[in-house]
Amino acid sequence: MERTFAIIKPDAVERKLAGKILDRIEANGFAIRGMKKIKMTREQAEGFYYVHKERPFFNDLCAFMSRSPVIVLCLEKDNAIADWRTLMGATNPANAEAGTIRKDFAINIEENSAHGSDAPETAAFEIPYFFNAFELV
Ligand code: CMP
After folding, report:
1. Is 91 in the pocket of ligand 1 (CB under 6 A)?
2. What is the domain-level CATH number for residue 14?
3. Is the C-beta atom of 57 inside 6 A of ligand 1?
4. Is the C-beta atom of 129 inside 6 A of ligand 1?
5. Residue 44 belongs to a domain
6. pLDDT averaged over every residue in the chain
7. How far is the first Cα of the chain from the last one, in angstroms, to the nearest whole number?
8. Residue 16 contacts by C-beta under 8 Å, 6 or more apart in sequence?
9. Domain total for the chain?
């Protein structure tokens, strides 16, 4: 079993798409080990996305991620990291496969409805960034 970290982003929560995205998560065999609704501070968003701090989109991204609540998740299944990325689709919804979350729900490359860890080392940073051991069940 593998764990990954996921976020239902502000654009999706604002448009009341969280239930539809959670339904896809469960229908695709992921166990939800942790889940909470939070509103990130600007500083939390900057810390979470620190690997992107030199990228031109960093400031806009951190403003977007801290503008309204998100749902943070720890998901578990065999091959969870790759399978969640497949279910989300490409970062840019214009390039996402039909039937993926980003193709169906995302607004653009920034407001792209969902986040997922891209590797085991990333998941090992991202899961404890938002969850303590008692919150993973
Ligand atoms: P995410 O998978 O959370 O990882 C970084 C985020 O930066 C990405 O989804 C998008 O929300 C955002 N982003 C904005 N512009 C770009 C871009 N040009 N390339 C990649 N990510 C971008």
Report:
1. yes
2. 3.30.70.141
3. yes
4. no
5. yes
6. 98
7. 14
8. none
9. 1
Tell me the residue range of the domain where 102 lies.
2-130
Query: What DSSP letter does each residue of the chain carry, written as one string?
Result: -EEEEEEE-HHHHHTT-HHHHHHHHHHTT-EEEEEEEE---HHHHHHHTGGGTTSTTHHHHHHHHTSS-EEEEEEEETTHHHHHHHHH--SSGGGPPTTSHHHHH--SSSS-SEEE-SSHHHHHHHHHHH--GGG--
Q: Is pTM beyond 0.95 here?
A: yes
**24 annotated ligand-binding residue:** no
Closest C-alpha to ligand 1, atom 15: 110
pLDDT digits (tens, 9 = 90+) for 11-46: 999 999 999 999 999 999 999 999 999 999 999 999
